[in-house]
Structures are given as C-alpha cells and as structure tokens.
Amino acid sequence: MSRVIAIDGPSASGKSTVARRVAAELGRLYVDSGALYRAVTWRAMEHGVEEGDIEGVIKSLHEMEVLFRVDAGAVCFTVDGRDPGLALRTETLNRRVSEVAATPAVRDQVVAWLRDMLPFGGLVMEGRDIGSVVFPDAEKKIFLDADPEERARRRHAEYEGRDEASTIGNVQSSLTLRDLKDTQRKMAPLVVAEGAEILDTTSRGIDAVVEAILASVRG
Ligand code: CDP
C-alpha cells in the first residue's frame, strides 16, 4: 500500500483547498498533479507550439527540465529553472490543457514524476486519476464532487482580483468543456476509482469536508 491519500474530482470541486488542509493536518506533503499537466502545456506554449500540434508538445516535453523540491509542506517544481507560478492558471492555458493531458506520452511522463515522489514522504495528492491509475494502492481514495453551477461560482470567485475578464457564464462553459474532455478521453479518464469514498461539497463548507476526510483516514 502506498502512503498516499488520493483526492480526485472534476474542476473546482474543492480539491486544492481540501487537499492542502488535509496534508497540513496530517503533516503530509501536498501534491497538485494538475499543475504538472499545466506545466507541460505552459512550456509548449512558451516555445510557440500551436494548438493541435501534438508532435510539438511531445518534443517540448522531451526538452523540458523539471526539478522537484519540498517547500512549505508541498512538493513544488521548477521548469527549466523557472517557477511558472500564476502563469499556469490563465484562461488560455485552461483551454489547451485537456488536449495536452489526453496525450499518452504526456500522461506516461507525469505519472512517472508523480510515482517518483514517494521517497519525499507521505503524500496527499489531488488530481483526476490518482486513485484509479497513479496509485491504485493508495491508502485512502476520496472523490470530491459539486454541482456545476457551484463549481463555476467558486472558480469565478478565485479569478476576482486578477486582471482576466471573466463572468460566471463563461467560467461555467469553460469548466464544462474541460470536464467533458477529461471524462471522455481514452487514457485515464476522470472516473470514481474503485474503493473511493464520494463526498459532495456543493452545500458543505471546507471545514466539514476536511473533517470528514480526517475522520475517515483516522478510522
Ligand atoms: O484546478 P482544476 O481542477 O481546474 O484543474 P487541475 O487539477 O489543475 O487540472 C488541469 C487539467 O489537467 C485537467 O483539466 C485535466 O485535463 C488534467 N489532469 C489530468 O488529466 N490528470 C490529473 N491527475 C490532473 C489533471
């Protein structure tokens, strides 16, 4: 059994906030697997790879240097010596990441990076396929979900204060499209992993969700 708590679910279901809190409570390291798919996408975009150019994405993937380190309770990384930070969260990147994440060569590399993190210590890892593919032997598997309207409202609130123009309506259509692509792709689609506990966060606050997970982990 791997020392991993897997927290999977669709976009803006509360995974990041919940996973960070659970990791802090348990003294474990938080891992955002989606950030790696975003980093592969960002690196390709930085090198002028156009949408739909899968060969270009794979070439960029082979050239990129990713270094991992532990910082502030999380496993963090640099790409070619740079910390991409908020550049991973733009709407342009949101539109392109699902295509990149559906590419088998990209998935193989990201899964290898994620599995190589085990020696860092006990992990709380969030994503789409952590309990189903990356660590099917995880000690605990959680699937977080929430109504699409509520997820759009949360993501829109995150964008406020940044200079990107967004409305709840266009955030919801962008999330819906990405969920559709993530659910329908051939390799490692978003599914509820065998043995996962499903938690609906639509009307439950973060504290309640964190408490429910901690109670389940502590048994
Ligand atoms: O934060 P949000 O839930 O919007 O997305 P994310 O977790 O940063 O993931 C971005 C994208 O990466 C997703 O839409 C998926 O296409 C992909 N992804 C994946 O395929 N498998 C994972 N384990 C994590 C993310």
Description:
- The chain is of the alpha/beta class.
- It has one domain (2-203): 3-Layer(aba) Sandwich (Rossmann fold).
- It is built from 9 helices and 7 strands, in the order βαβααββααβαβααβα.
- A hairpin with a 2-residue loop joins β3 (66-71) and β4.
- The chain binds cytidine-5'-diphosphate.
- Residues 11-12, 33-34, 37-38, 97-98, 101, 127-130, 178, 182 line the site of cytidine-5'-diphosphate (CDP).
Please specify the SSE layout and strand pairing:
Layout: E1 2-8, H1 15-26, E2 29-32, H2 33-46, H3 54-63, E3 66-71, E4 74-79, H4 91-101, H5 104-115, E5 123-127, H6 130-134, E6 138-145, H7 148-159, H8 168-184, E7 197-200, H9 206-218
Parallel strand pairs: 1-5, 1-6, 2-5, 6-7
Antiparallel strand pairs: 3-4
Helix pairs in contact: 1-9, 2-3, 2-4, 2-5, 4-8, 7-8
The structure holds cytidine-5'-diphosphate.
Which terms summarize this structure?
48% helix, 219 residues, alpha/beta, single chain, binds cytidine-5'-diphosphate
CATH superfamily (homologous) name:
P-loop containing nucleotide triphosphate hydrolases
In percent terms, what proportion of residues is strand? 15-25%
Overall radius of gyration: 17 Å
Largest sheet, described in full?
A: 5 strands, parallel
Give the helix proportion (percent range): 40-55%
Number of helical segments with 4 or more residues: 9
Low-confidence runs = none
Structural class: alpha/beta
What is the typical, i.e. mean, pLDDT? 94
State the strand order across the main sheet. Answer: 2-5-1-6-7
